Amino acid sequence: SAQTASAQLGRLEGALATVGINTGALVADVVQRENGSTAETDACARAETGRGGPFVPVNMATAASAEDLRTTLRRWNDLVVAMSNLPLGVPVENMRVSSSFGRRRDPFNRRHAMHAGIDYAGLVHAPVLATGGGVVSYSDRNGRYGKLVEIDHGHGFFTRYAHLAEISVKIGQEVERGTQLGLVGSTGRSAGPHLHYELRVGNEPRDPLKYIGVGKN
To answer: What's the CA gap between 167 and 185, in Å, rounded?
Structure first.
């Protein structure tokens, strides 16, 4: 029913709101792209002139309910399309988080420092996966990050995958959630084989585990 669909949509939008995601802006972007691609189809539809058939009165209450359901489902579908690019996935499979986001003791000098991402401890050459769709904006060695891949997911979202042993993608390449970006390594400022994973909105680091939690739920 329209009421059930609306409730489910509300739960989805509420979950995304917990990490500050503006679903209105996401849906508006999808709708804008779809409107551009369907302009020609709409023009053809308007050109049709052959019409007819018997007159059948409309039950206005039923029609309103059906329209509410169609509106909700359209928004649901648009939001699902937009979410495919959001970094809500897991960058590695079957690996434990060895260092969380936030303040911690630096593994080299033991001084307190800000950790802008999370670390996954794992075996060398385990696959590293894109957590959302987007475009590769960086793919090379980068100082203390070692071999680094960065993805631009749109709407100000960026993810970084650091200390890679190998890189599998190039700048400008389009990727989907689950695309292999490289292999776990220990390049750069690294104390052992692991993946350093960052999620940024604009240039502000955010806790990736909160977004991963939204994706799982």
So the answer is: 10
